[in-house]
Amino acid sequence: MDRTRPFVPRSAVAVLTATLLAGTGVTALSSAARAADADLVRNGGFESGLDNWSCTAGSTVNSPVHSGSSALQATPAGSDNARCAQTVTVKPDSQYTLTGHVRGSYVYLGATGTGTTDVSTWTQSAPNWQQLTTTFRTGPSTTKVTIYTHGWYGTGAYHADDISLVGPSVDPGQPPAPPTGLKTGTVTSTSVALSWSAVPGATSYAVYRDGAKVRTVSGTSATVTGLAPQTAYAFQVTAVNDAGESAKSATVTATTTAGGGGNTDLPPHALVGYLHASFANGSGYTRLADVPDSWDVIDLAFGEPTSVTSGDIRFNRCPATECPGVESDTEFKAAIRDKQAAGKKVLISIGGQNGQVQLNTAQARDTFVSSVSRIIDEYGLDGLDIDFEGHSLSLNADDTDFKNPKTPVIVNLISALKTLKARYGDDFVLTMAPETFFVQLGYQYYGTGKWGGQDPRAGAYLPVIHALRDDLTLLHVQDYNSGPIMGLDNQYHSMGGADFHIAMTDMLLTGFPVAGDAGNVFPPLRADQVAIGMPASTNAGNGYVPPAEVVKSLDCLTKKANCGSYATHGTWPGLRGLMTWSINWDRYSNWEFQRTFDGYFG
């Protein structure tokens, strides 16, 4: 089906006819009936954010607005038309008028579940605010109707405001009683699990953190995420139904734990680089002992599998025939110990462009754990870097929730990394270097999508990062060799300047709805867990930026200064630092990347 233009059903003619008849008085209500009518939409002007609305994408903005101080802005992306909906209580066999004001191209307003003929109306182009109106009559047993607004695929952002549904009201009764039995469950460094007793008559529950509403859920449990480590929080819950919201429950408190991934003794700002240890290319071989002291984390590239699905990882150092001047194993191990004595971390990096790893089975998972452990033990390494690329990670069609993954390659990788972390303890350094396709692209697309047809690798790193966020030392996404990626401003950003690095990093530190689902948000990472991945030179990869653009990126993210067109959602002076591919290419370029880092962070 061509989704570039909407299909206009014949029923639209009927709706228009009904509207015209209403204008001539044929379906006009009596004065007495009008007096009993009410606007049944809750928060139709979006003055309370998205409260009472269920949106697959969108947020409230202060400009443009039709009236008041807020309006809805939503951007269709991929197979999502950015639908916002609300279910309201109606009277059976009654006439209702649905009205809203919209801006944008191909914006819809409609109602479903009417019990008669579901209706919708739309505008092809509304550069300024335009009123949309449609009417319907409820069926003889209809008590609930869902009203909605949405855009159209690939047509950009739309705005909606002052949505109303006018018609006979129904006595909603009384708000429910406050919830009881509120208690905490699992507490991590960034999240607190809550549960409470069900309240008769409640249709949903609102969760409050330190007095501010942070979540609305339909069940009697919720996990509040995005918290700071070692911080005390107070939580309350209310019960909600058509009549309103209850008083708040009794307060429970919880203090988050110390961040498991932040216990390693890295400096406040770290420089991370990959050292070509198993291969040679045009950058030349660099001995580990010759790596300057500026490099705080050295990733040995690469450990690779004996086959894609074996899970058997081998680290074969570059032979002298390929890498003239390569040190002996004894010298190499001595250099590792010397780096560690100087406070540096030396890791084995698994994967890379040619080292695809798919842990499809429990046997492959266990082989991965044992083979990686042998490498770590033989060389006395500090930890592990996961650089799975290509087709290593992808999502099965039924794997739609990043918080509860089902795909074997994902589940087995998470299990393997947790086993390694438990084996080596709190000082084990765990880092990841995914490409933007596997992380930030998840803001628009996740796996094959609701209707299938999308690349199953889209966003596939998100469940791994999320499951290990309390064990993760560093995430340094490769902001290079990337196509354009949509940022949180719903604009596409391309490599080659500070704007790309700012937008991509802001997404990690702010969090984002996965595949535009406002109810399924990837929580932010701590600033000390994030480094920006950049190529060291034009030879190293596409997306190189000169030192001035590196400085702009750091200024904007750590000081909110020197920013360009992208507006960040915070300031993070604790941003851990920079990662580059690679140490070898930086040496080839007279250590330009290292000198930029040293000049900025001292």
UniProtKB/TrEMBL annotation:
Question: Which domain of life does this protein belong to?
Answer: Bacteria
Q: What class of enzyme is it?
A: hydrolase
Recorded hits in Gene3D superfamilies, A to Z, give: Galactose-binding domain-like (2.60.120.260), Glycosidases (3.20.20.80), Immunoglobulins (2.60.40.10)
EC number(s) reported in the record: 3.2.1.14
The residue range of the signal peptide is 1-35
**Positions of the Fibronectin type-III domain:** 178-259
Gene Ontology MF terms in the entry: hydrolase activity
Domain GH18: from-to ranges: 269-602
Alphabetically sorted, this entry's keywords are: Carbohydrate metabolism, Glycosidase, Hydrolase, Polysaccharide degradation, Signal
| Listed InterPro entries | CenC_carb-bd (IPR003305), Chitinase_II/V-like_cat (IPR011583), FN3_dom (IPR003961), FN3_sf (IPR036116), Galactose-bd-like_sf (IPR008979), GH (IPR017853), Glyco_hydro18_cat (IPR001223), Glyco_hydro_18_chit_AS (IPR001579)
Which Pfam family is an annotated match for this chain, by its short name?
Answer: CBM_4_9
Similarity remark: Belongs to the glycosyl hydrolase 18 family. Chitinase class II subfamily.
Name of the featured protein? chitinase
